[in-house]
User: Which sequence fits this backbone?
């Protein structure tokens, strides 16, 4: 088995993740900035910011609430009210579990399920409803008539703008927070130990088949999802940038300072 076929999907995923993190951070900061330019008030800008990403925020918090209930994990805090912010960072602490009264596994599940569910919804909306994968393939041809035809097909999709907004809001709120990832290190260690055990007892062929089969296909699916999100984010960045620049010229002042990571 060629080592390239094993590490290739991982490298492709990493190449998409880097720009995606930067794009998402930019979008969050400048969405808040546009809200501040429109209202001139940080409290109102915070409300505007969360309204834009409401589907993603609601999905994350409500899913954690349900999963915590199913696993019988007590909540430390349930606070639906917004607090004024100085920048665009989604605050996923409306629903907070009591980590002192649960174990690492349950905390990992509660933190991971919203990400998995969001990923499924993004994949379903982008492929089954909007067929954005077809648009990606058309863009890859660099053929103008093919790209134009694919774009026209997109705009002819029923409720296109509604589903595009839902996709945008969910995809830009699906990256797990530091708290969500708190117990994921243990899961990685367990997977690593199992993999080493397979090698020690002579089941390396089974391990390679797994990595080259289900794991590779899963990584390719995730990379496809993230690539679609990245294209959508680049479009949003262009629109937000033009909107923000126009509002700054109209209002005569600039937004809050940004720190791009």
Assistant:
């Amino acid at each position: 088995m060629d080592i390239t076929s094993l590490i290739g999907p991982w490298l492709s995923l990493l190449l998409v993740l880097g720009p995606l993190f930067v794009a998402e951070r930019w979008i969050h900061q400048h969405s808040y900035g546009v809200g501040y330019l429109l209202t001139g008030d940080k409290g109102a800008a915070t409300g505007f910011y969360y309204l834009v990403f409401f589907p993603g925020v609601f999905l994350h918090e409500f899913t954690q609430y349900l999963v915590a209930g199913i696993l019988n994990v007590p909540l430390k805090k349930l606070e639906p009210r917004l607090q004024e912010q100085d920048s665009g960072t989604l605050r996923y602490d409306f629903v907070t579990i009591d980590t002192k009264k649960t174990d690492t596994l349950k905390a990992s599940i509660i933190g991971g399920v919203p990400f998995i569910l969001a990923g499924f919804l993004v994949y379903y909306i982008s492929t089954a409803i909007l067929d954005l994968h077809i648009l990606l393939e058309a863009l890859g041809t660099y053929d103008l008539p093919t790209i134009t035809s694919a774009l026209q097909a997109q705009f002819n999709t029923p409720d296109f703008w509604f589903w595009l907004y839902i996709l945008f809001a969910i995809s830009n709120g699906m990256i797990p927070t530091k708290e969500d990832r708190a117990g994921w290190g243990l899961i990685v260690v367990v997977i690593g130990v199992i993999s080493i055990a397979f090698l020690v007892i002579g089941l390396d062929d089974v391990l390679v088949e797994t990595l080259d089969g289900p794991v590779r296909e899963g990584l390719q699916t995730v990379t496809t999802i993230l690539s679609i999100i990245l294209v959508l984010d680049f479009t949003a960045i262009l629109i937000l940038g033009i909107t923000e620049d126009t509002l700054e010229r109209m209002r005569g002042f600039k937004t809050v300072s940004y720190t791009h990571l």
